[in-house]
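Hi all, long-time lurker, first post. I run a small reading group and we've been trying to get comfortable going from sequence to structure in the token notation. Rather than ask abstract questions, I figured I'd post a concrete chain and ask someone more experienced to write out its structure so we can walk through it together at our next meeting. Sequence below, copied exactly:
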Amino acid sequence: MSAAELSFEASSGEPLEAADFAPEPILPEPIRQRVIAMAAAVLTLLPGDELPVPLRKVAKFAPNRRARLGGAQIATQLSGDPLFRQRISGKVLADAGELGAAVLGGMAPAAADPIEVAALAYLARPDGWRDLLDVAGQAVAAVAESSAVAEQIREAQARAARAEHDRAVARVEADKLRDELARVREELGQVREEARTATKGLRENQAALKRANELLAIEKGRAAKGHGDQEAELRRMRARVADLEAAAGDARQAARDTRAVDDARLWLLLETIGQAAVGLRRELALDPAKILPGDTVAAAYADTASAPTAANRALDADDPARLAQLLALPKAHLVVDGYNVTKRGFAEMSLEQQRNRLITGLGGVAAQTGAEVTVVFDGADRVHGLPAPPRGVRVLFSRKGETADEVIRRLVRAEPPGRPIVVVSSDREVADGVRRHGAYPMNSESLVRRLTRS
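-- Answer (accepted) --
Happy to help. Here is the structure in token form:
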């Protein structure tokens, strides 16, 4: 038994009961905080010599800091010093009034706060105070559980509201996609109809050309037959040489007239087509193009490349022969994944040497084919102050947080439908992406072979 407990027994004149030696109960946190707050509030009401030594410094704190900074010391003294606890409980019960009197009598008013009742019971410790603590602990646990259930209900309601919002957004997006799909289908139908009309016109022109060739062959056959007959007649009747020569001259003149008529018909057809094209251009009032679609993408990379140069374009294949065939198409655009090509062709060089080697080679390709050439490098290795690229070659670097693959896809999407575009990259993801937009993907090895051979 501690000296404090012995002094408390002597002062009260009553023996300590066996129940006082039971272990201190573990208080729920709300009750523990309330006990500390009550003790801290009346701490300064005790004389200095009645305060335990560890709490004398705490008693000097401001009221709002006393429970927060000295809570651990206060709880320790209340648990281990019955005399200090009795002194504190006397002050607290006096402040509590009727509620303190009821608790001291072992009763808990039904309308009283269970936390307040439990804190007073812990300090005063009347008969049955542990039961009051148990009842208050159960009430606190029930309140905490009810709060947790209410919080879970609020979270479930919030999740349900978010889910409903997401469903509404998804429905709106689905409607937009359906409208876009309908528009694309309508445009596809128009393109197909235009293609059928163009195919029909081409077939008619081919049929007319075939008929003209047949007529020309017939006339040539007739002329040849007449000439043979004339030669035979000349051999048979040398006496009639003058007449036969005149007849042969007439036949040759007729053949020349026939060819002249055919040439005139062909000239008239070509002139009609040319005049129609001139008239259509005049009717549409189209000014000559000052920029190319690739320039709209290159404008965003003006800080990393020299001024874009106008050029022509290219298509796709798996070998240099096919590449040459595609580059011969009019207005082709060759888009090159820079480092994807150099790492396969010039990996032993430094990055600067790889870039210079590729850009120089592409300058030769642009000069030979007249194609528009754009080479894109990843911006992680971008450099400033690059020399001006060769004529017909556009050099781009991707920006921070963007890859060369994304720039290539932007270049492809910027082009009008029907224009031949070749993308050189061995990256399958890039090839699949540009193919969906109508471009021709081609392996990097084919361009390396073309550059090495040239």
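A couple of things your group might point at:
The beta strands are 333-337, 372-377, 393-397, 421-424, 440-442.
Confidence is low (pLDDT under 50) at residues 1-19, 304-317.
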